[in-house]
Amino acid sequence: MKQTTHEVTDGQTDKAVVVSLVLKSERLTEDMVQYSLDELIRLADSAGVQVLHSMVQTKDAVDSRWFVGKGKVEEIRAVAETLGANTAIFDQELSGAQVRNLEQALDLKIIDRTQLILDIFAQRAKTREGYLQVELAQLSYLLPRLSGHGVNLSRLGGGIGTRGPGETKLEMDRRYIRNRIHELRVSLHEVKRHRELHRVRRKKSGVFQVALVGYTNAGKSTLLNRLTQADVYAENQLFATLDPTSRALQLPNGQEVVLTDTVGFIQNLPHDLVAAFRATLEEVCEADLIVHVVDGSSDMQDAQMRVVDDVLRELGAHGKPTIVLFNKSDLQQDRRELRLGGQGEALRVSAFSPDDMERLKLAVQERLMGDTRSFVIPAGRGDLISLVYRVGDVLGQEVEGEDIRFDVRLKHNEFDKQGTMLQAFIAHEAIQQEGESY
Ligand SMILES: Nc1nc2c(ncn2[C@@H]2O[C@H](COP(=O)(O)OP(=O)(O)OP(=O)(O)O)[C@@H](O)[C@H]2O)c(=O)[nH]1
Ligand SMILES: [Mg+2]
What we know:
Layout: E1 2-5, E2 14-23, H1 30-46, E3 49-59, H2 70-83, E4 87-90, H3 96-106, E5 109-112, H4 113-124, H5 128-142, H6 167-205, E6 209-214, H7 220-228, E7 245-250, E8 256-261, H8 271-276, H9 278-286, E9 289-295, H10 301-315, E10 322-327, E11 345-348, H11 354-369, E12 372-378, H12 382-391, E13 392-400, E14 403-410, H13 412-437
Parallel strand pairs: 2-3, 2-4, 4-5, 6-8, 6-9, 9-10, 10-11
Antiparallel strand pairs: 1-3, 7-8, 12-14, 13-14
Bound molecules: guanosine-5'-triphosphate (GTP) and magnesium ion.
Guanosine-5'-triphosphate is lined by residues 214, 216-222, 234-236, 238-241, 264, 327-328, 330-331, 350-352.
């Protein structure tokens, strides 16, 4: 059992002991265990909880009653008492029964990783959609944990659950929660429909959508602020941003695109939570370009990138045009070669460097608009030539015998509709010509 006591400062905040259970079967390296624990401490800090002490226990199996096993519970109690902690935070999800047993045995507020994240989200929510999503996630978390006695709705506020509501009260709570979940889903559906209308309108306007996605604390909001002079909350906290924010970004060629900042991702994000935030993240699926922001100074960047890729895949946004942005280059000591999985290009930047921000804008511009193509069209085909002007900006044209060659920078939205038609025409002509020459 590994123990670390953390520096203590005085204050009115909750004081916690954090506990992580490592199962031998998981075959986690010491680094991975430490990383997860460090992340939990940062989450606690972001939630305004002060961590006094952390403990890691390795075991063969989870104790169904006590999670960590009765002997360890005694140790936690002793440590908490000595240091004056009022909360115990567990790095893994606990069952309702485990929470109740631990609460009774320790006389501490018992919180698990999911609840901690939910708590941060609840503190950060600012929009109606944000509130709805957080409440839905909280209730979805709570419902399967309501059983027997010991837990009631007052737990939602994070307070210690009052003990022993009778079965009738429990049934009422359950029914209330189910109804409320239903209401929330309906409301969110409405919000989503609204968003879709908005999106369709934006699509029609032909403005490119660029989404900043990435692991929490990678620097997404800082980038949005630096690129667009926005004033979004960017802090050295996990989940500083909850609600997506969009701003106009002017590219070097003068064209404006919409840049959206999104909620950060984290490992072991509970499924219910991802589901609750699906509406928000659907913006990402609609983007013309994804900028995947990576904290390039983190030792865990590979694991963090995998988490982001997994969530994107789950959302159906994987495989979209992507720029991978290794941020915080000012902090990076080793200049490793950029390793890239899958599609996309990579860029190493510091959000604090104006030069780097210009490079980034250029990269975005090139990625969105740099798609130029040549079309060779018979001079007599006015219908096709007018199509050429519809699918993009004609950068140049040259007469080649009876044909004209057009170099066109494609407008993506238009190209979907008209360009395929144009290509089909040209392919058709080419086949015919080939046929004639035989
Ligand atoms: N040194 C350095 N710090 C950076 C850079 N970019 C961002 N940061 C810092 O990293 C921390 C997190 O930045 P945010 O912009 O809040 O990160 P985020 O990705 O929006 O995080 P969430 O909203 O929590 O998902 C802040 O303390 C920033 O000042 C950078 O290029 N270099
Ligand atoms: Mg942010």
